[in-house]
């Protein structure tokens, strides 16, 4: 494990995404300035892209993609991350989750994939709670990338009402945005972030 790998994993555990981006940007610059012994690894560029997506910075993710050499763009894990980027830019959360689940991510980037799945779910859940007075169960579980029972349990934990007869849920009214820590803790308890277990069931 390189120094950068150890650093970004430590920062990820604390949710310090801007510091991860700063470390990745420095590594990218270092690779550009030095031509000997400084070949960028696909893993580091993939982590860089994923972290931009975690903080919902699609614009800089696109800029990074355009800066990458063709051989890096064609690397499977980077290509999969770019596919996720395009789905998120198109507001297609369900397709983004499908890619995250289907692709066989290397161990070094899996923690970032899991954090991205959490971040997408949190943003989607917050949007649905703020923009709708009623959400069908089919829409909720598909957009969150969860099973029906997981989606119901998560919604109930945040005060939503479930109409079983009509298979619909009514969001609770919150004065403040949902806290990242509470959402992620509850989501992990309910789904156990079954990103890779879900893949086995497909």
Describe this structure in words.
- This protein is mainly alpha-helical and 202 residues long.
- The protein is 68% helix and 4% strand.
- It has helices spanning 3-13, 17-33, 42-54, 58-67, 70-73, 76-89, 93-102, 110-131, 137-144, 148-157, 180-191, 195-201; strands at 135-136, 161-163, 168-170.
- A three-stranded antiparallel sheet has the order 1-3-2.
- A hairpin with a 4-residue loop joins strand 2 and strand 3.
- The longest helix is centred in the middle third of the chain and has 22 residues, at 110-131.
- It is elongated and about 65 Å long.
- It starts with a helix and ends with a helix.
Task: Name its key features.
elongated, 3-stranded antiparallel sheet, mainly alpha, 202 residues, 12 helices
Largest sheet: 3 strands, antiparallel
Total strand segments: 3
Question: Which word captures the global form?
Answer: elongated
Head-to-tail CA distance between termini: 32 Å
Average pLDDT: 85
Write the layout of secondary structure elements.
Elements: H1 3-13, H2 17-33, H3 42-54, H4 58-67, H5 70-73, H6 76-89, H7 93-102, H8 110-131, E1 135-136, H9 137-144, H10 148-157, E2 161-163, E3 168-170, H11 180-191, H12 195-201
Antiparallel strand pairs: 1-3, 2-3
